[in-house]
Amino acid sequence: MDISSIFLRLSEGMMRSVLIFTLTLVFSLPLGLVVSFGRMSKWAPFAGLENAECRLRSKGNKLAKLAEKLCLLFTRGLAKFKPVQLIVKIYISIMRGTPLMLQLMVVYFGPYYIFGMEISSDYRFYAVIIAFSINYAAYFAEIYRGGIESIPVGQYEAAEVLGYGKGQTFFKIILPQVIKRILPSVTNEVITLVKDTSLAFVISYAEMFTAAKQIAAKESSTLPFVGAAVFYYVFNLLVAVIMEKAEKSVSYYQ
Amino acid sequence: MDESTILEMKDIKKSFDNLDVLKGISLSVKRGEVIAVIGPSGSGKSTLLRCATLLEKIDSGSLLYMGYTAAYTGEDGEAVYASKQELKKIRGYFGLVFQNFNLFPHYTVMKNITDAPISVRKRGKKETYAKARELLCKMGLEDKENYYPYQLSGGQQQRVSIVRALAMEPQILFFDEPTSALDPELTGEVLKVIRKLAEEHMTMVIVTHEMEFARAVADRVIFMDGGVIVEQGEPEQVFGNPNEERTKQFLSRYSER
Ligand SMILES: Nc1ncnc2c1ncn2[C@@H]1O[C@H](COP(=O)(O)OP(=O)(O)OP(=O)(O)O)[C@@H](O)[C@H]1O
Ligand SMILES: [Mg+2]
Question: Which of B46, B55, B224 to mutate to test the pocket of ligand 1 (most atoms within 8 A of CB)?
Fold first, then answer.
């Protein structure tokens, strides 16, 4: 068995890895932007309570005073409550705080074990794409947020005075500058994603790494793993070249 | 209101949290007038400009451009702003030059100047470019149209930002300390172009710490302190013979430096 026949037998798995990679980026890059907006949401439906007064009729009573204090504490807290931001914060912390492998299993087995739903055989693939997309969206969201928050407020103000609308300001003035700033961090994530595609094996999705393992066991040879290593390395080399091109294309200004 | 009045501010009040920054400022600016606003740090000069340019919302008072109401005090005593469309129209009447330029770094000089007139005001490309070239020429920047802001000196960047504001063809132009982010040797070139605009009777309100410059170009000098206009008048009077004790103190502190 030589390396070229290995690559031939691994090719279907490779296609699947590339497919996971591509679809994950297609979904998670825009989704990340939406998530980052949620993370930056300042919507506080009870903000009006900030100056709410808590007065009980029976004054002087110690218990009444305690109740007033609690009431104040409660209304002040509620006034600061930002539901969208909170939900997104929790989502991001779970996505970043637990292994992607586990998330894959939850997305794949969850519907059956939790809701008793029948899972079709197609679902394996969808589960992979869903789990990867929502996981990477969380990482991208934090990168976007960092980028967006790093743009000086003066850029928004200059645009506002010149009459740009909110959408125009974001897409014409802010986003291009954000993209330039975040490209290096995005490159890191994309390179990690190439390697992470192999995690789909935990739900027996036959991507490249799964295929390599199977062939290796069947032929009792380590050559398929060498093939796998070469594949990931070359894939990442390609990613690095493309991202470098992208970074160059925005290096015309500082 | 007089036809030649471009800006009319009446009893503008503005506070941040519990700090009263503007305590009832009234100011009207006539076409062609050049006004210099001076005053100590924290007196509310920037806040006044930010309120006038709608970057900050006033708490109460009224704000009119060319007779169109941008904001007025409602029945409950709080400021009411005009509709979005109305405000968009009103934004076309004024321009603002920032202390730190705030040019768009990813646009060339030309694009910085022409993008808003074309994409916001829907002006023709040809006329906008021609106008931009003419203005660049006037500012001594004719060879810089394809440069990016980072390739220019601070003084050049500030002149570009003045051109950017002028290209919108505003009725009035506000400056917030246009030279204080510049090295001393570069302030001259910026003051020179502002002086040029003054000679052409561009209506301007200039917040500045450059007293000599204020004295030379302004038709009227306004001295602000503690959120109020303490004194205003012709430059010779305010600088040469101030009526108020606070003005005297401020000016003498300045000349000591
Ligand atoms: N966004 C804000 N939030 C809270 N306080 C503010 C804000 N902007 C300004 N202030 C306060 O308002 C006061 C007036 O500020 P302003 O910037 O208008 O002063 P200024 O006259 O422009 O001073 P300088 O000469 O230093 O530029 C200051 O005490 C400042 O701390
Ligand atoms: Mg200021």
Answer: B46
CA of residue B138 to ligand 2 center, whole Å: 28
d(CA A85, CA A35): 9
Task: With residue A117 as reference, give the H or E element that holds it.
Answer: none
Q: What is the pLDDT of residues A1-59, one digit of tens each?
A: 677 888 888 888 889 999 999 999 999 999 999 999 999 999 999 988 887 788 777 76
Q: What is the pTM of this model?
A: 0.90
Total beta-carbon pairs less than 8 A apart between chain A and chain B: 57
Contact B9, B26 (CB under 8 A): yes
* Residue A76, burial from CB neighbour count under 10 angstroms (0-12, 13-18, 19+): middle
Q: What is the 3-state secondary structure (H, E, C) of chain B?
A: CCCCEEEEEEEEEEEECCEEEEEEEEEEEECCCEEEEECCCCCCHHHHHHHHCCCCCCCEEEEEECCEEEEEECCCCCEEECCHHHHHHHHCCEEEECCCCCCCCCCCHHHHHHHHHHHCCCCCHHHHHHHHHHHHHHCCCCCCCCCCHHHCCHHHHHHHHHHHHHHCCCCEEEEECCCCCCCHHHHHHHHHHHHHHHHCCCCEEEECCCHHHHHHHCCEEEEEECCEEEEEECHHHHHHCCCCHHHHHHHHHHHHC
ipTM over 0.90: yes
